[in-house]
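pasting for the record
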Amino acid sequence: MIYKILLSGKNSVVIDEFYNHMDNGYDLLSSSTIFRDMVKNLELFKPDLYVYCLYNETADDYAKMNEFRRHIEKAGCGFAIIGSKEECDTFQNKTNFMADLILAKPLTYDVIRGNIYAYMLDRDRKKEQEAAAPASVTAAPAPDPARRKHVLVIDDDPLMLKLIKEYLHDNYDVATAVSGKIAYKFLESKATDMILLDYEMPGESGPEVFLNLRTRHELDNIPIVFLTGVSDRERVKEVLSLGPQGYLLKPIDKEKLMSVVNGALKK
């Protein structure tokens, strides 16, 4: 499904970057910050998400957005803001308009794309749940302490998958997937106790897969650890900003791998 995103705000640089980095998989339209244009484009385009790009907002801008809030609510679309953490915090404090999604930069556009995609998936699922009749609730079976723990490894490199499986197979049941798509298919019918996820993959990136997995309520308590070949301090901070249970640097050291997996699964 292609989601429709309507962009507005005074930060033309960010709007241009959206067109440069986000056009694949999203239907984009930008609007001027003139109030009547914002309302007209909202009504005609019918976006799934309205993204307001923050830059040097004034008291008049905050007042305008407070007024615009009722049009967003009427349209039933999501509302996101993007800017520095300070700009996002100020917007939230100065308006009565609480954003559904806050994109506080610096963030790469892979992470931004993943955050938006995860938000839209979660929003769609909530709509489906609201439309469906209440289902009967059955008690979950008690965990079997004798059962071997299961680890799912997601990495586009078959050699890396083979290596990690060799390291873990004496102590854990291990399944592997070369993409997020294959991992989702696996998780439709099988359960896992932990996920090791490559941060940098072609197509759907590690952050996108991570955020998609985190929208699945049955995986709420499943630890996810990133595998990354990047040791740069800023990139590591970027990895951790998503909230994984940890990360491992490539090339993978067996002792460190076992320590992280044992710790996450309390073996």
